[in-house]
Design brief:
Blueprint lengths: L4 E2 L20 H14 L4 E3 L9 E5 L13 H4 L3 E23 L2 E19 L5 E7 H14 L10 H15 L9 E2 L3
Parallel strand pairs: 1-7
Antiparallel strand pairs: 2-3, 3-4, 4-5, 5-6
Length: 190
């Protein structure tokens, strides 16, 4: 089932999310719905707050990037990179900071360069509640960091310089009022 994606200005996007337990109601159905919602909106990551839930859950599927010539050198690593992250905790961020032009399904039509560290170590549970501690680099780390921010109540626009924040402020106000055209199901703040 495709769920409506919450737009900038919705209070749930600013909440620091809560851990869940293995008996969380209909967890597999929620995970399936989040993947379906993300794919229908042509996204590569989606966090629970973006579908209205303040829980520590996000999904990532960067397989579409495997066919992108910009990622030809890591295409093999990307082509099967579809993961569920539950109760995630970033343990370490390392390496050089690098800029990348990010966007967000909750903030349509806004893209800006964001600096993030190149490598992360993250502890999380998968959808079967098997615990993992993994190290990720490159675009995979970037997407995970972006989605991880969501479960911490942080949006990519929070990481912009004061000047960039001023420049996008008008667009953010329009999004929060529903004055934006999207080709996916979206719920705007009241």
């Amino acid at each position: 089932m495709i769920l409506p994606i919450r737009a900038f200005g919705d209070a749930v996007l600013r909440k620091k999310c809560q851990d869940i337990k293995p008996d969380y109601p209909e967890l597999q159905s929620l995970v399936d719905n989040m993947f379906e919602t993300m794919h229908s909106a042509s996204g590569i990551g989606l966090a629970a707050p973006q579908v209205g839930l303040d829980i520590r859950l996000f999904v990532v599927d960067v397989t579409p990037l495997a066919d992108d010539e910009d990622y030809a050198d890591i295409a093999e690593e990307l082509k099967d990179f579809k993961k569920v992250f539950i109760n995630a905790k970033i343990l370490e961020e390392s390496g050089e900071e690098w800029k990348f032009n990010e966007g967000c399904l909750s903030i349509p039509d806004v893209r800006e360069d964001v600096k993030r560290k190149e490598t992360i170590v993250i502890e999380y549970y998968d959808e079967r509640f098997v615990k993992h501690t993994d190290t990720f680099s490159d675009i995979r780390a970037r997407v995970i960091q972006h989605e991880y921010d969501h479960i911490e109540g942080i949006l990519f626009t929070d990481r912009l310089s004061a000047l960039k924040k001023k420049l996008v402020k008008g667009k953010l106000v329009k999004i929060s009022h529903g004055d934006v055209a999207v080709n996916y199901k979206m719920r705007f703040p009241k």
